[in-house]
Amino acid sequence: MATKERWGRPYPDSRNWSIYNERLVRCGEFYLSLEFIEQWDDLLARMNAGKRGRPFQYPEPFIARIACIHVFPYRQMEGFARQLATFIPTLRAADYTTLFRRIALLDLSLNVTPELLADDVVISVDSTGIKVTNRGEWMREKWKVQRGWIKVHAMIDVETNQFLGLEITDEMVPDDRLFVPLLDQVQQHCGKEHPVHRVLGDGAYDGNALFNALEHWGILAGIKTRTDAATHSTGSPYRAECVRDRVRSGGYRLWSLVPTYGMRWKAEGAFSSIKQIVGEGVRATSQEGMFREIRMKVNGYNMLVALVA
Question: CA-to-CA distance for 243 and 255, rounded, in angstroms?
Fold first, then answer.
């Protein structure tokens, strides 16, 4: 089979491999990072201040850290905590019932570390599918069982690979419908200290409402428009301006070099990393449980990214 010649600028691999290797090794330290032990009593005191009824026995960071290893069944999670307690006398191991109830009550708002963001943030937006069952192609082919999948919509910082916006739906929701809610989340996480400079997206996000939202926020668009898109305004003057810029630059390939459109792959890379670390499917059976499990995995990924940064 003839190989296709790669167009565009070659990717300069300027990584320091010794540093890169050390970061991969440090990923394993994430699961046994025990900084919450030092603040155990203080955290419990704040959580139980003014609380009515039975007081909390485990601080929130401990539950959140255990939730990050949700690839284990709950009873194995109890075993992990029990074995960990043999090395740390002050650690009280929680039983699986307590872990199940507390994890169900966790605040799963997106965990972002703003200190890692650049002064001008560049965002990549994309979506990916998550399998809801691991029964495989044989079951689907033989018994015609189609359970669909879960769709994860995300905006990711191309510099730090952090998830800055996250929405989870079923497979019927189109990508462009979640663009504005995702952009609102990104703006909240970035704040005024780290303004969003540009948003990169493929043709699924080519819509007037999306370009109008970017113009409203003063954000540059790195979104691929249709090759036959009109150069005059049809509901979005900013989109028409972007189309004219593409035509003046000499076509799509040359245009893609200007807004660094190729960095859009960072979103695909983040999705691939999560699937390699915690799997391509979910263990939960209810839709609510599936959505919560994905949020826990994304939060764990963000915490891991912040640790090795």
Answer: 10
Confidence (pLDDT) at 230: 85
- DSSP class of residue 233? -
For the chain, domain boundaries: 17-104, 114-285
Average pLDDT over residues 173-198: 93
Q: Tell whether the model's pLDDT for residue 1 goes beyond 60.
A: no
21: CB partners within 8 A, 6+ apart: none
Could you please report the per-residue DSSP string of 282-306? ----SHHHHHHHHHHHHHHHHHHHH
| pLDDT (mean) for 3-16 | 66
> What confidence score (pLDDT) does residue 250 get?
82
Question: Angle at which helices 265-278 and 287-308 pack, to 10 degrees?
Answer: 110
Q: Decide if 95 contacts 77 (C-beta within 8 A).
A: no
Contact yes or no for 106/67 (Cβ under 8 A): yes
> CA nearest 282: which of 270, 272, 291?
291
Residue 77, token pair as written in the block? 């999670």
Using alpha carbons only, how large is the chain's radius of gyration in Å?
22
| 163-170 and 196-201 beta bridge pairing | unpaired
- Cα–Cα dist 48/104, whole Å: 19
Q: Detail the DSSP E strand segments found in the chain.
A: 121-131, 149-157, 163-170, 196-201, 220-223
The neighbouring-strand residues paired with 281 are: 131
d(CA 302, CA 198): 21
234: three-class secondary structure by DSSP = coil
Helix/strand/coil for 297 = helix
